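Q: What would this chain look like folded?
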Amino acid sequence: MALPTSQASAVVAAAGFDFVILDCEHGAFDFGALESAIAACEGAGAAPLVRLPGADPFFAQRVLDLGADGIVVPQIGDAASAERAVRMAHFAPLGTRGMNPFTRGGNYGMPPQPKYATGYPFTGVLVESPAAASDLARIVAVPVLDLVYLGVYDYAVAIGAPGQVDDPRVLDFVERASRLARDAGKAVGTTVMSEQQAQRFIAMGVNVLLYGADTWILGQGAKAGLALYERHGWKRR
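A: My prediction, written as structure tokens:
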């Protein structure tokens, strides 16, 4: 989700998805809009995850206090940065996150406080460059890391093939990364835009699929409506 409206997040969550990623790297969320979108996802039955703008401990602290179920951290270059990203999401002794039980994430200090239980928060990192891919064996060994998310669009840009996520070099990256991540007991995810892509990535071992983006879904729906008019030769008035 890049559109900073709780209604858009609620519609997508209500459609039946397991989780929604609220994108604070490329989206237009401020903290007020983010809190509303988190609540909307929860109310509609989807887990709210937040994609941070970078490995920012302050930002991670805020979004988890707002009640996000977890974070996905972009721009990870190596195992050391992956370890820092995971640590900033967790309380001591696993990490460096500050504790305040009186936030929304802590149910305002009142029991139950499920987001302070073992297993929270969910933590993921984006591997989206050849440099990070070369250190992937050490990244997937980071303790408490739940998800390795493969940024195929950034990877395609990095190898000089922007937008070409079906390039053989991108597919080799996905296949190798999936094998390493799954062998290490981590979930591995990426973006899919079609049934063909989904089938291909699942066959490679990807087990977390993010379907498109809100802006793309909106655009596809609008284009389908216009195509209906054009197929039937209906005139615009």
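The chain has a mean pLDDT of 95.
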